[in-house]
Design goal:
Structural class: mainly alpha
Strand content: under 5%
Distance between the termini: 138 Å
Radius of gyration: 55 Å
Number of helices: 4
Shape: elongated
Number of strands: 0
């Protein structure tokens, strides 16, 4: 028996019940046979569905699996698109930031170069042109300065001793003056 005939039986049973309550003089229809026929119809449909259910379960599972795979693929595509968009946005932002930093660095370099002594610039050019010759000149100048400092060192040591002796004398004079003021 099919589901359509089962629904038809349900409709017929409902109409019979409505007619019974609507009319007082209506002939009595036994409820048991209608219910039993309905019950039997339901049992036939349900027993028939058991075999169909097993056969179509694989089909429903396959359809749901295919749908799930399609949804997953669509989600993967969306995720890839979102990643591409995010990557492009990051790259554009990084490029803009690096460009701004480069421009700021160039501006700072120009401002710093404007305040450099021209003689220092000449020395830098000389060092780039002949690094070995520049190194020799620096060593020669260093040695000359060290020799000059050696002569000056003895003079500065003498001056330092004089200041130390003068400071010690002032300290002792102050100490003596304090002793006399206290009376000891």
């Amino acid at each position: 028996m099919q589901i359509k005939s089962l629904i038809g039986n349900l409709n017929q049973t409902t109409k019979t019940a409505e007619a019974k309550t609507a009319g007082q003089n209506a002939p009595a229809v036994p409820a048991a046979p209608a219910a039993s026929s309905l019950d039997q119809s339901m049992r036939e449909v349900v027993s028939g569905l058991g075999s169909v259910k097993e056969a179509s379960a694989a089909t429903v599972s396959d359809v749901l699996t295919k749908e799930a795979q399609a949804i997953e693929a669509a989600n993967d595509e969306r995720a890839v698109r979102r990643s591409k968009i995010a990557g492009a946005a990051f790259a554009e932002t990084a490029l803009a930031t690096f460009t701004a930093a480069g421009e700021a660095a160039e501006k700072m370099a120009k401002e710093a170069a404007a305040g450099i002594d021209p003689q220092t610039i000449e020395l830098a050019k000389l060092a780039q042109a002949d690094p070995a010759g520049f190194l020799r000149e620096v060593e020669r100048g260093f040695n000359e300065q060290r020799a000059a400092n050696g002569q000056d060192k003895t003079a500065s040591d003498r001056e330092l001793r004089q200041y130390q002796e003068l400071g010690a004398g002032h300290y002792l004079n102050g100490y003596e003056a304090l002793k006399q003021a206290i009376g000891r």
